[in-house]
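Structure (tokenized):
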């Protein structure tokens, strides 16, 4: 532990026997910590996790390019993206296992670059491949992991029993971990993450590789663990994010596409047409798109070339300016004038899948590079 960290950790806090991991000391434009050292968590109006302008490269691969988002306290936030979108890299930076090339993270009001050990004392982390010792019984491995968190005697015993009870592991407590099903192994991983009763849980692909029944059990367990905690769950499985999370952060190709409550994000797809047409030339498709964008009531048109001259349009409209039926007729007329072969023309249904596809087509958002109170943090 560095001297700067040792000087701010209150004596009443447990000293965790985990070595210091990668910490970035070169991130620019970092704000000062919001809180006094003896008050580690910010008021409820502040985000529990703040991520600002994260960049990370691996050789020629730019895994993260300016990612910024917030995780509010007391909610389950989903980190959604396709494989390779940057989810695991983001989580490893938040938890202190990887240092960013640029940008900063603040958890509970404290910068991870300045208080890495202290922050990680208050995070329960379940990586995508949860590390376990297959030859050890469940209760024994939990007791061992509790000791790494500085728990001794009755305190360690209480923590182990609480974790076994919460994660419903009583029936297998004496069995070796290597003999368990993948669903039970995942429960053991979740149990190790809550041994020290952390206020923040970060779970990387907790349903990956599980069968439908195990996924349902894991989803229910995550909701129970979320009571009184802030939870960040990464996944590429859309139904699990929709059923488990209150909020959503979406990444694509290392960049932020969207963040907000599921209700607010899904409302973006309430007034859209999905149209798929084949044009004779690219010029005809371009002229038709420009004509549709100029129609009164049309708010936007996102075009994507599917195959050859087949174009898929997502046309958003304002029902206060144009009724749905007349607007559909006007768009159809423009397609007819362009001599397009219309293959699909329907009202888009609001769903997480349609939102995901739309945002993948639209590309990243502009991300802020500074925190909300960076200039005045005390």
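Design, position by position:
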């Amino acid at each position: 532990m560095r001297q700067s960290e040792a000087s701010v950790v209150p004596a009443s806090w447990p000293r965790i026997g985990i070595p210091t991991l990668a910490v970035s000391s070169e991130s620019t434009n970092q704000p000062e910590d919001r809180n006094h050292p003896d008050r580690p968590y910010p008021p409820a109006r502040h985000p529990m996790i703040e991520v600002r302008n994260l960049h990370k490269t691996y050789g020629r691969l730019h895994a993260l390019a300016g990612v910024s988002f917030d995780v509010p306290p007391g909610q389950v936030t989903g980190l959604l993206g396709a494989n390779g979108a940057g989810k695991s890299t983001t989580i490893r930076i938040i938890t202190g296992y990887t240092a960013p090339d640029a940008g900063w993270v603040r958890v509970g009001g404290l910068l991870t670059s300045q208080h890495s050990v202290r922050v990680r004392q208050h995070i329960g982390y379940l990586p995508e491949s949860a590390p376990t010792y297959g030859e050890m019984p469940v209760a024994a491995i939990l007791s061992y992991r509790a000791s790494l968190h500085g728990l001794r005697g009755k305190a360690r015993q209480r923590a182990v029993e609480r974790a076994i009870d919460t994660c419903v592991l009583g029936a297998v407590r004496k069995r070796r971990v290597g003999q368990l099903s993948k669903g039970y192994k995942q429960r053991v991983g979740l149990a190790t993450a809550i041994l020290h009763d952390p206020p923040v849980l970060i779970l990387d692909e907790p349903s990956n590789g599980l069968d439908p029944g195990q996924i349902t059990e894991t989803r229910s367990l995550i909701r129970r663990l979320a009571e009184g905690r802030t939870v960040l769950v990464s996944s590429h499985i859309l139904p699990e994010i929709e059923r488990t999370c209150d909020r959503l952060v979406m990444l694509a190709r290392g960049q932020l596409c969207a963040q907000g409550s599921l209700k607010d994000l899904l409302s973006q797809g309430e007034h859209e047409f999905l149209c798929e047409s084949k044009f004779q030339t690219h010029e005809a498709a371009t002229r038709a798109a420009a004509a549709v964008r100029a129609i009164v009531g049309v708010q936007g048109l996102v075009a994507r070339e599917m195959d050859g001259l087949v174009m898929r349009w997502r046309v958003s409209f304002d029902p206060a300016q144009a009724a749905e039926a007349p607007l559909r007729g006007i768009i159809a007329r423009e397609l007819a004038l362009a001599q397009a072969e219309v293959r699909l023309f329907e009202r888009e249904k609001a769903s997480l899948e349609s939102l995901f596809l739309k945002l993948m087509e639209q590309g990243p958002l502009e991300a802020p590079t500074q925190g909300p109170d960076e200039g005045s943090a005390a």
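Reviewer-requested clarification: The chain has a mean pLDDT of 81. Residues 167 and 187 are 6 Å apart (CA to CA).
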